[in-house]
Prior knowledge:
- With 114 residues, chain A is mainly beta.
- In chain A, 0% of the residues lie in helices and 52% in strands.
- Chain A has strands spanning 3-5, 10-14, 19-21, 24-26, 31-38, 45-50, 56-58, 64-68, 73-78, 87-95, 103-104, 108-113.
- In chain A, strands 2, 5, 6, 10, 11 and 12 form a six-stranded mixed β-sheet that branches. In chain A, strands 3-9-8-7 form a four-stranded antiparallel β-sheet, with no helix packed on it.
- In chain A, a hairpin with a 4-residue loop joins β8 (64-68) and β9 (73-78).
- With 114 residues, chain B is mainly β.
- Helix content of chain B is 0%, strand content 57%.
- In chain B, a hairpin with a 2-residue loop joins β5 and β6.
- Chain B is globular, with a radius of gyration of 13 Å.
- The interface between A and B is medium-sized, with 24 and 27 residues.
Amino acid sequence: AQSVSQHNHHVILSEAASLELGCNYSYGGTVNLFWYVQYPGQHLQLLLKYFSGDPLVKGIKGFEAEFIKSKFSFNLRKPSVQWSDTAEYFCAVTPYTGFQKLVFGTGTRLLVSP
Amino acid sequence: DVKVTQSSRYLVKRTGEKVFLECVQDMDHENMFWYRQDPGLGLRLIYFSYDVKMKEKGDIPEGYSVSREKKERFSLILESASTNQTSMYLCASIKPGRGNTEAFFGQGTRLTVV
């Protein structure tokens, strides 16, 4: 069964700082990888996803993530954060084929101070 | 626009009550999920279903059951609610397939058991 680890539980940054959130997964086969975001009081939204091709994936709001297969990692990055990026971020994994059980990490709470 | 709708935004129930949480999706997705979200624990999978009348236990099924009588509807049942089931419950659906897919989430039901 697959699993996901997010090592940063809380991150505090000032506006314009760069962001990198770690995500590692364990699974023996090919996977789909996702980053979801949950803004305060809102439901989960997809930021970006990887399923094949270019391992550098660009998402909404200037976010990007890089899939490094050899490290089983899918880290989320943003060059310059804004106050509006304050949210909780979740990494998730599902097998590429077969039944797609979707498993999440524990989340990273990001606070951006103005 | 794709939609996953959970029947209640907030619920307050008494210990020992039988509680039904309803989820409906209009995307004709085969796979549906129930998660609970707790601070510091991320989204934990309770049950999932990959077809009508089919169900599989997730990581924390104890104290819960599910029902999927129609493709669009997936119900979570707390047989005898307890205070440790106070949580945010999230429903999701996903269209299975090779590769490019994503899960869509409902707005969540915040359940308080007193």
